[in-house]
Design a protein that fits this description.
The complex is a heterodimer of chains A (205) and B (188). By secondary structure, chain A is an all-alpha fold. Chain A has eight helices and no strands. Chain B has 188 residues and is mainly α. The chains are: A mainly alpha (205), B mainly alpha (188).
């Protein structure tokens, strides 16, 4: 990725998602320096390992929200459905890692550990604060924003058949973003698909 | 698709291609307020990438054409979504055209006359748009598998993800599960 395009992607992510929820970011350069989710991951195995670590964080967050947040029936159904799909992503990645002889990393074991990882990814919300539906949805939207970013970067780095697999997961993660926003905004298409390019994800509300 | 709301499809798309779609979009108040950032990007496009990108551009024109022709037939939620998604498809046309220019290729600027069938009511129009968006996601998935370098794959995937989101909203508009699969299949 050229520096210009990388800056554009991350700058957009920073400038947009910082509005109201998602990511607490000063500027695109700060995000690029701080998040760097695939920095140092050069082989397929290394990239897949980073994706797996992130999927485990997503699963931990979805499970925590499902278990502890006060959600409407629609929100609870959505969270449960998306959680099942995140498990599917993790299972696929786990199989790919095992095939390459790479050990599957342990998932986060505590809320504070997960929150530290979310902070490192510049997700503004924290699990230990996601008690009501609004906070929980905002947290999950912030996480899905990072998911889009990580898979997008992975598609550029992976080789062989793996970019297509990553693109299939990216498409699902982007749909999760839309689904979570739809819960908050009754499916408003402008808020649910805020940009013509994802991960240019923003939520203007 | 039949003429509606006082304007025929031919009138709507009297100037074929992006210019026509953009002109109509401007009239509808949905023209993008700014040039897409992706339109400023210069990437390496190798010769084998050209037919792939040209096919994607044709698809994007078809989508813009279909949304433009659909707007007079829709109302409520479907109309709201179509107006917004047309704007985004125009952004995709700009991005893919720019990639082709990077490869020294003059991009096609015509939507041609895609056969959209004859949807009889607003619901049928939404079904049509859903089908076209699904075809677009499938085409972008295939493109990601075939494009020659990671940079191009990344751009294609950024558009793919948005088309997948369009599919979700159009499924929602029909009362279908918005995210039916953990892996995007291109047949949702």
């Amino acid at each position: 990725m050229s520096a210009t395009r990388r800056d554009l992607f991350r700058g957009a992510l920073a400038g947009g998602a910082a509005v109201g929820l998602g990511l607490a970011i000063g500027d695109g350069g700060a995000l690029a320096a701080a998040i760097a989710p695939l920095q140092g991951a050069n082989t397929d195995g290394q990239v897949l390992l980073r994706l797996m670590e992130f999927e485990q964080l997503e699963i931990f967050a979805y499970e925590r929200v499902e278990r502890t947040a006060a959600l409407s029936a629609e929100a609870r159904t959505t969270v449960s459905h998306f959680l099942a799909q995140e498990h599917r992503h993790a299972a696929l990645l786990s199989a790919l890692l095992t095939k390459r002889g790479v050990a599957v990393p342990p998932p986060p074991s505590t809320v504070s550990e997960a929150d530290a990882k979310l902070a490192a990814l510049l997700v503004a919300r924290r699990l230990d604060e996601a008690h009501d539906q609004l906070a929980a949805m905002h947290l999950l939207i912030g996480i899905e924003t990072v998911a889009e970013t990580i898979y997008h970067l992975a598609i550029e780095k992976l080789t062989g058949a793996l970019p297509e697999l990553a693109a299939r997961i990216l498409g699902c993660e982007a749909q999760h973003w839309t689904g979570l926003s739809s819960v908050l905004h009754d499916g408003d298409p402008v808020l649910a698909v805020p940009s013509e390019f994802a991960p240019f994800a923003t939520n203007p509300s | 698709m039949n003429a509606a709301a006082g304007l025929s499809r031919r009138q709507l798309l009297g100037v074929s291609g992006a210019a026509g779609a953009a002109a109509l979009a401007a009239g509808c108040g949905v023209l993008p307020a700014k040039i897409s950032t992706l339109q400023k990007i210069a990437l390496t496009v190798d010769r084998p990438d050209v037919p792939i990108l040209e096919a994607l551009l044709r698809l994007e024109y078809t989508l813009a054409y279909a949304y433009t022709a659909s707007i007079p037939r829709l109302n409520g939620y479907g109309l709201h979504a179509a107006r917004w998604f047309l704007r985004q498809e125009l952004g995709h046309i700009g991005a893919v055209s720019t990639l082709l220019k990077s490869g020294g290729i003059k991009p096609n600027t015509s939507a041609g006359s895609p056969d959209l069938g004859h949807p009889g009511n607003a619901s049928a129009v939404v079904v049509l748009l859903h089908r076209l968006e699904t075809e677009a996601t499938r085409a972008y998935l295939e493109a990601v598998a075939k494009l020659s370098n990671g940079q191009l794959r990344a751009v294609a995937s950024a558009i793919l993800a948005t088309e997948a989101q369009h599919v979700s909203i159009l499924r929602r508009a029909q009362g279908l599960e918005p995210v039916p699969s953990a892996l995007l299949t291109g047949s949702e």
